[in-house]
C-alpha cells in the first residue's frame, strides 16, 4: 500500500511538472532519475508515507530546484503540509515563508529546548551517541516526516533536528534544507562540517539542523 501511494503521488507531480513545461532532470525516490535539459528537480511526493497510510496527520509533499547536482546549489524549495494545507517555501537569498508570511528559526537557545530526533530503525551504536541528548533534553519529538520537521524548526517550533541513522536520501531533505537555512538555521553533517552532498537518490545522509549557534554548541558538548 505504501509504495503504491508513493508511485501515484510521484507520477502526479511529474505529470504536472511536464505539463507546465519544466524540462529539468527529475530526481525522485520512486522514479530514480528522469533526464531533462536544464537544472534538477529533487522531489519526495509524500514524505511521511506511513503516517499518510495510517491516517496520522503529519506528511507532506517536498520539491526543490537545484542548478547543479549538489545540495548546496538548491535555489528554490516548497513543502506543502498535506494534512493542514500549509505551504512553506523559500528562494536562495530571499528568506523563508509560510503561507506568505516570513518565518525564522529561533535566534536564541532556550533553557528547555524542543529537539526532533529520528530514531526509526536506528542501530544501538547510534542510540548510544544520542543517549546524552535524550537524557538532557526536556522535550524530544519524532513526528515521522523529516522535511516537515525541518519546516517546524524553520518557523521556531523546534530548536534542533537530528537524524544520524545514515538512511536519509537527498530527496528527503533538499527542500527542507533550503527552507531551514533561509530561516536562519544551520545544517551540519555527522562529522560536524557544513552539510553537503550530491543529489543521487542512492546517497544516504546523517545530519543535524540547529536553529542557532548556541544550540549547536549545547548539542556538540553532549556528543
Automatic annotation (TrEMBL):
<keyword id="KW-0479">Metal-binding</keyword>
<feature type="binding site">
    <location>
        <position position="46"/>
    </location>
    <ligand>
        <name>Mg(2+)</name>
    </ligand>
</feature>
<dbReference type="GO" id="GO:0006020">
    <property type="term" value="P:inositol metabolic process"/>
</dbReference>
<protein>
    <submittedName>
        <fullName>Putative inositol-1-monophosphatase</fullName>
        <ecNumber>3.1.3.25</ecNumber>
    </submittedName>
</protein>
<keyword id="KW-0460">Magnesium</keyword>
<feature type="binding site">
    <location>
        <position position="172"/>
    </location>
    <ligand>
        <name>Mg(2+)</name>
    </ligand>
</feature>
<feature type="binding site">
    <location>
        <position position="47"/>
    </location>
    <ligand>
        <name>Mg(2+)</name>
    </ligand>
</feature>
<keyword id="KW-0378">Hydrolase</keyword>
<dbReference type="Pfam" id="PF00459">
    <property type="entry name" value="Inositol_P"/>
</dbReference>
<dbReference type="GO" id="GO:0046872">
    <property type="term" value="F:metal ion binding"/>
</dbReference>
<dbReference type="GO" id="GO:0007165">
    <property type="term" value="P:signal transduction"/>
</dbReference>
<feature type="binding site">
    <location>
        <position position="29"/>
    </location>
    <ligand>
        <name>Mg(2+)</name>
    </ligand>
</feature>
<dbReference type="InterPro" id="IPR000760">
    <property type="entry name" value="Inositol_monophosphatase-like"/>
</dbReference>
<dbReference type="GO" id="GO:0008934">
    <property type="term" value="F:inositol monophosphate 1-phosphatase activity"/>
</dbReference>
<feature type="binding site">
    <location>
        <position position="44"/>
    </location>
    <ligand>
        <name>Mg(2+)</name>
    </ligand>
</feature>
